[in-house]
Structure formats: C-alpha cells, structure tokens
Specification:
Layout lengths: L7 H17 L6 H26 L7 H17 L5 H26 L3 H19 L9 H7 L2 E2 L2 E2 H16 L3 H11 L1 H6 L4 H27 L10 H11 L8 H32 L7 H30 L1
Antiparallel strand pairs: 1-2
Length: 324
C-alpha cells in the first residue's frame, strides 16, 4: 500500500470522524460542536506543530508541556499582579518560550548533549520556575478575551482561524532555505553538514521556533481556561510527540507533509477523546448502575492512542523494507 506512505494520520482521522459522527449524530456538524472541538484542542494542535518544527530538524523536546505551563503562569501574573494588557502579557510569554527554546537549542547543538537529556532537565527547571511564578491555581483574564476566543470571526470559530493562520504561515515557511535545511538535517545530519548546512544554527533556530509556538499554545490555553494553573501543561509533551508520529512524520520527508500530518495526528487524538466521552456518557445515562470511573475513560483513550502509534510504526517499517 504505497499510497498510504505518510498518510496514515489522515486515514486514522477519517476513521475516527466516522465513528464520532455515528455516536454524536448530526449534532457533530453544528457550529457550536465544531467550535468546541477546535477551541478545546487548539493548545494541543499548536503543541504538535511546535514539536513538528523541532523533530523536522532531527530533535525532540519534552519540555514543551512545561513551556506551555510557564506561558500560562507568566500571562496570569502579568495580568493580575502588574496590570498589563492581555496582548502585552502574551508577548512576554512568547518571548519567554522563545528563550527556553533558544537555550535548549544552544546546549544541544553547540555542546552536543542529547536532546532527551537537555529537554528533560529543562522541563524540570521550567516546572519549578512556573511554580515559583504561580504557586497555586488562580487569577483570571479579561472577559472579552475568553469570549473572543470562544466566539467567531466572520462566522468561523476563532480557534479555527488561529489554527489556519499558523498552519498557512508554517506551510509557506517551507519555501525558505532554513526549513529546507531543517528537513535535510532531520533526514541525514552528516550529509547536510557535508553539503554546507550550518547545522548548529539551524538546530538552534528550530528549537527557538518550537518554543515560541509552544508559548503561543500557552496563550490559547489561558484564553480557553480563563485562569492560571501550571499543572495544565503536563500532558502536552507526550501528546504532541504522539500526534507528530501518528501524523506520519516517520514516513514522510517533506515540510508541508510534516505540518499537515501533525494537524491530522492532533485532530485524531482530539476526536478519540470525543468518541470516548460520548461512548461513556451513553453508558452512564442508559446504564447508571454500572458506575464507570473516569479513569477508565482515560485508560481507553490512551489504549486507542497506543494503537495509532503502533500502526504508524508498523507502516514506517513496511515502507523501509520496500525501500531496500
């Protein structure tokens, strides 16, 4: 099935959408339902895009989740303690996220330290820093911020508009030399170096860009929750990696495919959560005596995600065998 190469994320997403529509019915197509789907999952979508930029250059960043949490804490403190505007607070958060990515990139590229070790250490450091900034959940954002985030722009959900703008920007960025160098390094770093690519500079740029996008995810998370809680970002690191792998990064070699694949992978995770929610809600309503714990809901969701990851890995192995 050569046609499936790099497209497994789309196939899994299509299958998940069919199941979701069967469970939710025609209500899935309402503006409120679509707006809620993108609004509640935009932070994950952006986290997946941040991870994509980094993985395209042959790296990985498990500090993305806590970068999102740090951005959330910075915005809340800037708003409530210093009286800054939401836009000013967001810029401060994005600057901090870019700085985190910059430090990661410099240590990894210039000092040759493995990405997993660097980003794990950075994740621990950022988590402590975020807790120093915002020790306990609280704070609020202006009413117009979360109303705008949950509203529409020209009858299109605001979250979807933000996603489209970011995706279009990243796809167009594929025309730049720097992104071509990222994919070259991700494919074969040694060959890229021999070809004259400035590997260190490109890697630092990738991590800085990933940090900026992760911080933007934190901005959207803050607008969504309308409060601060630095624990909310913990799950995004592994989810973003899962989304990128399911989206087909293992099997595709083009920048555009990386970006669109990450979106499809993240949407697959979002729709799976929707499916499990509606399925368990149906059981709870029609069979109240069963008393199903919410832990089982999360367990079932994770089981399906593992299936998606296994499918992506098997598809990539099959493609590599054919390529020999």
């Amino acid at each position: 099935m050569k046609w499936l190469e790099g497209k497994l994320g789309y196939v899994l997403l299509a299958g998940a959408l069919v199941i979701n529509i069967c469970l939710q019915g025609i209500g899935f197509f309402t503006a409120d339902s679509i707006g809620a789907l993108f609004g509640s999952n935009l932070p994950l979508l952006l986290a997946a895009l941040a991870q994509t930029v980094i993985m395209a250059a042959g790296g990985i960043d498990i500090s993305i989740g806590n970068t999102i949490a740090l951005a959330n804490g910075i915005i809340i403190v800037c708003l409530n303690a210093y009286g800054m505007s939401f836009s000013g607070s967001s810029l401060a958060a994005i600057a901090a996220g870019t700085g985190v990515g910059l430090v990661n990139g410099i240590i990894i590229a210039c000092f040759r330290v493995p990405p997993l070790l660097v980003t794990f250490a950075m994740s621990t450091f950022i988590k402590g820093l975020a807790l120093m900034i915002l020790p306990k959940p609280g704070g609020n954002v202006p009413t117009e911020v979360y109303r705008t985030y949950g509203g529409t722009i020209f009858m299109i959900p605001t979250a979807l508009v933000i996603l489209i703008v970011v995706v279009v920007f990243l796809v167009l960025a594929g025309r730049f030399r720097i992104t071509n160098h990222m994919t070259a390094i991700g494919s074969n770093e040694r060959n890229a170096y021999v070809s004259g690519v400035r590997v260190e500079l490109v890697k630092v740029t990738a991590y800085a860009a990933g940090g900026a996008i992760a911080a933007l995810s934190g901005v959207c998370l803050t607008a969504l929750t309308a409060t601060g809680d630095v624990r909310n970002g913990e799950s995004f690191a592994l989810q973003s990696i899962a989304a990128v792998i399911i989206g087909g990064m293992l099997g595709s070699g083009k920048w555009k495919n990386y970006i669109l694949g990450a979106v499809s992978g993240a949407l697959f995770l979002a729709v799976i959560n929707n499916i499990v929610f509606y399925a368990f809600s149906y059981v709870s309503v029609n069979y109240p005596e069963m008393q199903i714990s919410t832990y089982y809901q999360q367990l079932f969701s994770n089981f399906i995600i593992i299936f998606g990851l296994m499918s992506a890995a098997l598809a990539e192995r099959r493609n590599r065998r054919r390529g020999r």
